[in-house]
Amino acid sequence: MIRVGVAGATGKMGREVCRAVHDDPDLELVAAVSRSADGQRLDALLGLEGSDVVASGTIESFLDAGVEVAVDFTGPAFAPEHVNWGIANGVHVVVGTTGFEIDPAWADQDRVGILVAPNFAIGAVLMMDFADRATRLMPDAEIIELHPLTKVDAPSGTALATAERIAAARRGQRDDVPIHSVRLPGLVAHQEVIFGATGQTLTIRHDTTDRTAFMPGVLMAVKAVVARPGLTRGLEAILELPA
Asked: Is the pTM of this model over 0.70?
């Protein structure tokens, strides 16, 4: 059983991660970081029946709890610090936070596994894979991504990752792929890639209507990262999608 700690445990994504880890028979939720809920029990906060985890305001609590994998859904100001903390303390890290630059040095260490993914929804990963394939025959494309007003980064990490794949497929630069960001209430996470060619268009779209859609991918990442020292970008390597 893998001992898991969640940073950002009382945020919208962190709450779902805590519930998913708590319910998985192969994982054990042993620690949680939430500055706003420091000292409060997760059973009362999140309805985790049988949990005795008390939220802490600092990630140092992960050491006392014997955390093996830290899951980060905090913010771009904290996620890099948490990864560096994991490297220094021998704790594997799964990062779902976006809006920051990945440190190239993370790939040079072989002590812990670090998995950083812009999107943990399986459908979103497939959407990016399909867009990559379509680019080889229809290279003209634009991206529209839609998220709630509370999302702090624009464009989204998923849109940037998609643009990188499109640019690589047509041997260009990421900035050459137009991205349109929409921020409105009522949205969760949505993206479409529109391809244009003579007399036709092709649209590949993925819609997330509930944050539980991300949880199967998060759980897969937590279980896989312990056997993947170094840096892994995205879920593609775990899903082993055909080339």
From this structure: yes
